[in-house]
Fold Glycosyltransferase subfamily 4-like N-terminal domain-containing protein.
Amino acid sequence: MADGRDWRPRVDADVRIAIDGFNLAMPHGTGVATYGRALGDAITGLGARLDGVFGIPVGANPDLREILFYEAMGRGIPDDPGLPAVRAVRQWFARYRRAKVFDVPTRGLIVQDMLERRLPQFDRIMSSARLFERADRYFVRTGRFLTIRVANPPDIMHWTYPVPIRMLGTRNVYTLHDLVPLKLPYATLDRKRLYYRMIQAIVRDADHVCTVSESSRGDVIAQFGIAGDRITNTYQSVSTTQPRDDRLGDITAVFGLKPKGYFLYYGAIEPKKNVGRLIEAYLGSQVAAQSAKLAGGGNAIAAGLGDYERLRMQQEFLSKRYDAASAAFEAARQQAVRQQLYVVRIVDANMPVRSEYPKRALSLLTLFIALMVLYGLGWLVAAGVREHAS
């Protein structure tokens, strides 16, 4: 505020709130990882203590947990060791064991400069080996959420992504960023039945649900019938430590853009991002500073959109040609198989003139010789017994 006071509300310093590290542990991060970092910064900014729950294998040795945790954060979670058959057996036995959650001591021995921007400032870090993969398998098999137990649980466990896990002894809050897998089923690779069942369970059992836009909030209410007071729109946010004036100066110097004179889109070009609607909104906003870039000039966005549409149509045309060629190839292959695999009857089946098997004379001779050998052995044994008796 103008008087220099901190406008943010404060909470009791004894309040502990945990967030999951499902997306934070990904080496390249996602939009949900950005959301998790912003949420963690908001929690610490309110004065509460922040805990983290990860799915990194840290082992049972307390002296190695911090090292193994940050190794996985920097290089990615290692693959499960062992042959595929051994891993399958290990996973089968793991069904009947409770998920163990270990505390990762933070003794300050690890140089964290490379990871400073990826992780919020945690007061406590907990980890259970491959927690999220195990929970996913458990949900597929049973249709129930995996329950984890920790010593001294936090006051709130905030899952930043729809995961089939709940923590015992605390309030479980879930963030549903959107329902894209259900509204645009052709645009994602999610398993739609499992995703639908998981969202149903979250809406039914969660202590509270968060989302990041009014549109997503309306979608969840309309499709799953959750009460309005059980779902809150917190809006998407981002945190930064760079002073605002410095950022404005950098943007103006590098790109020549003035404050409130442009829109910024940052993300992948994919169907679910709805980039076309964003461009329509940009055009409808009538931002004078950028109208020239949209409509005219060699670097105009309109010219770029024309090239994009041309490339998209070319891609669709080539895709159809590929499908047609693939279908023709498959038909030709099946025809070739049909021509190669055939049976021709040479002669009709009839009674043999002379049987070749069995060879009766040879069989009788073999049996006679075998019996004579057995008789000889028996006679020798009997003779030996009589001689010994006399």
Q: What stands out?
A: The chain has two domains: 16-233, 247-338.
